[in-house]
Specification:
This protein is α/β, with parallel strands linked by helices and 329 residues long. The protein has 14 helices and ten strands. Helix 6 links the parallel strand 6 and strand 7.
Length: 329
Amino acid sequence: MNIRRRIIGACLLLTPILLSSATAMAQQLPQWKHGITASDLDSAFTTLASTRDFAKKQGVDITFVKFNSDAIALKALIAGEIDSYEGSPGSPLIGMSKGVDLRMVGCYWPGLTYGIYSKDSIKTPAELSGKTIGISAPSSLPDILTRAILTNNKIDPKSVNFAALGTDAARFNALYAGSADAVAASTSYVPVVQKGYHLLASALEDAPEFLRLCTYMTPAAIHDRHDAATRFMAAEMNAIKYALQHRDEFLDYARSAAKLPADDPRPAYIFDEAVKYKAIDPAMTIPVVRVTWLKELLVKTGSITADFDAAKIVDDTVRQDALTRADSH
């Protein structure tokens, strides 16, 4: 009996130590701050990584930080406020041409499900000359895409007035209020755009080589925090793959993340469009040819003046290691 009591007593003494160790291990998970620039709806494919233990299974604690534009997220990355961010390659390429040292480590949304919306009275992109077009900020995805579509339609971007109007929702408010003649935004708005307005130009048709969302890190983060970076990307890969395989569950999560009512058609529209055009890639493959194409476009539109090898922005080491982790965890 005395032996039994001693064993029980020892176990009771050991329990707090074990619980304390478990708590300490949880607290010691590497932290990773990731910036997102897309709307809460569009970014749901990646923020899903914070649910269903995708991040925990990879041994990393992910915090998502929201930014209103790619340009602002890039500044935060350079300042060390975040570890990575996802956005259009435009701002990073412009930054690299000016000496900014950063790397593209993966592209999970290579197909650009984006476009330009306008009043019904504007029938073709050629009619945008002399008009006011709403973008989020200079050098952002809406800005660069608009310039690309204008250029492809033989319109000088200088003939257009660009207005920095913030988020997709803010841009649409300006369009409806008459403060802008057209706005660049996600095609998730197609099913809810107000009567009297329409999708004037689609990036998938007017700029098919344009990349939408890639992930960026600094060389220092890749070198000094390679293991945490790999865990983070593996969690994202698994979350994206899961989302594409579980439509209904993703739609529920996307509505919750974007605070949308159950009958809002946008989550279903953006999911089905992404699947139809194979716009999303869980492997986050980096299409270097398209990166080079975009750099040449930015030179053509005057956004880049210094020549450089665009392929040097690519670092595939984290993605390759993440693929191995994603498959085995």
